[in-house]
Design a protein that fits this description.
Length: 200
């Protein structure tokens, strides 16, 4: 897919396949991610299997904009300002989930979920076409320290477990910075591509 001007027909085809239950690998402003339809139980299980995740793992809802993000998490005014100042960008925020979030996506004890708004042309085009968030997780394989960054490499290694790989050339090489706001104060869970200084 063209990195600056994604072809509408291709974007539409990928969105249709996601609606039909496909699990894809796609580029973001941090690194490649696995993505599927919001309510896809099969997609969640496949992501868990590929990454060997337990039920305490925070999945991320990748949202097009702030309005969409606000449907799925509860954000008070102070947190709103902090997140607004950092989006779009390479941050994932953990927040209390609203009723719009399927229970299987929420942390079993905390009832929280991760959300982010990426600064990536292809991802934004896909989210606009979908009209809802993508359920996502960083494409970081078990026992590996770094995520894969090349579309052809992902296809080569994961073709048997993915339905599609969206390749638009180079993307980031570092996962997002994860900030947990579920307790009211900013807690840095993972230092990644986003600058943490504003949250310290």
């Amino acid at each position: 897919m063209h990195p600056d001007n994604p072809q509408p027909r291709t974007v539409s085809q990928v969105a249709d396949s996601i609606r039909a239950g496909a699990l894809i690998a796609y580029p973001t402003d941090s690194c490649y991610a696995l993505g599927c339809k919001l309510g896809s139980r099969d997609g969640i299980e496949r992501i868990r299997t590929i990454r060997r995740l337990d039920d305490r793992h925070h999945f991320t809802l990748v949202c097009q904009d702030f309005a969409q993000l606000g449907q799925f998490v509860r954000v008070d005014n102070d947190v709103f300002r902090a997140i607004k100042a950092s989006t779009p960008g390479s941050y994932t925020f953990i927040l209390p989930a609203t009723r719009e979030v399927p229970r299987m996506l929420q942390h079993p004890k905390k009832k929280t979920v991760g959300v982010r708004i990426p600064d990536h042309v292809v991802t934004q085009a896909l989210l606009a076409e979908l009209g809802e968030p993508l359920l996502s997780s960083t494409l970081l394989l078990p026992d590996e320290d770094e995520p894969m960054t090349q579309g052809w490499e992902i296809k080569d290694r994961l073709d048997h477990v993915l339905d599609a790989v969206v390749d638009s050339g180079e993307c980031g090489t570092e996962p997002t910075t994860v900030i947990d706001f579920s307790g009211g104060e900013a807690e840095i869970v993972r230092r990644g591509a986003g600058d943490t200084s504003r949250f310290e």
